[in-house]
Amino acid sequence: MSSLSKTQNASNPSALFGLQGQNVLITGATRGIGQACAIGLAKAGAKHVILVQRDTSNTATKDQITQAGSKADIVIADLSDMDAVKGVFDKAVRVADGGHIDVLINCGGIQRRSPSTEFSESDWDDVINVNLKSVWLLSQAAGRHMVPRRHGKIINFGSLLSFQGGFTVPAYASAKGAVGQLTKALSNEWSKENVNVNAIAPGYVATDMNEKLLADPNRLRQLNERIPASRWGEPADFVGPVIFLASEASKYLSGEMLTVDGGWMGR
């Protein structure tokens, strides 16, 4: 983008936050936060949104993106299969309009809950692979694509457990803590190449990943009392932050973990 175009964008909020012409690759968009963000990006003008899914049986997100006027495609990969993950970015580039990816969003994740003395090695490996190793592999592939072009945005999803330990979720806390450090490490290398790497840390959000917490009246009461906003988050609460981080509005922001938590971390 020319200096004149950047100056024009700075004085035009619609252009500053717009995503016209941008191609987005996103994981974890079949439901919840990822789905809301994928559809929101399309409504903000993203030209082509490419969804990483285990299969094509769920087309709800794709259908809503096309209804919003953007192009949508599905690239098949199971995020627990590292060999499959290694091929995802190249597949997306081949599918993408114009053969390039402008924004990568790592939103896919899984959860396993068990007391740490009983936490199985298989659960540990599953959580670390999906929540951390797939993020690393996709980010590395994105960097190899974006750095030579001197253009790109990478948005990872951390958690409040990027900062806190939580209970009975040792693998998830470890993975999300590492996502925060990975975000900083990649930012340190790539921000000078005009590739911004940031992350979002959701607070407690009413999605299926938290269904066990939502079903525990005592724990639910404790959490509600601790959230200054007095409510759990909803997937729609993340659309604005994602658009901000994917757009020119955040061009001088890199290496940050943006907490979207109803004030939890400020307390």
UniProtKB/TrEMBL annotation:
<protein>
    <recommendedName>
        <fullName>Ketoreductase domain-containing protein</fullName>
    </recommendedName>
</protein>
<keyword id="KW-0560">Oxidoreductase</keyword>
<dbReference type="GO" id="GO:0016616">
    <property type="term" value="F:oxidoreductase activity, acting on the CH-OH group of donors, NAD or NADP as acceptor"/>
</dbReference>
<feature type="domain" description="Ketoreductase">
    <location>
        <begin position="22"/>
        <end position="203"/>
    </location>
</feature>
<dbReference type="Pfam" id="PF00106">
    <property type="entry name" value="adh_short"/>
</dbReference>
<keyword id="KW-0521">NADP</keyword>
<dbReference type="InterPro" id="IPR036291">
    <property type="entry name" value="NAD(P)-bd_dom_sf"/>
</dbReference>
<dbReference type="InterPro" id="IPR020904">
    <property type="entry name" value="Sc_DH/Rdtase_CS"/>
</dbReference>
<dbReference type="InterPro" id="IPR057326">
    <property type="entry name" value="KR_dom"/>
</dbReference>
<comment type="similarity">
    <text>Belongs to the short-chain dehydrogenases/reductases (SDR) family.</text>
</comment>
<dbReference type="InterPro" id="IPR002347">
    <property type="entry name" value="SDR_fam"/>
</dbReference>
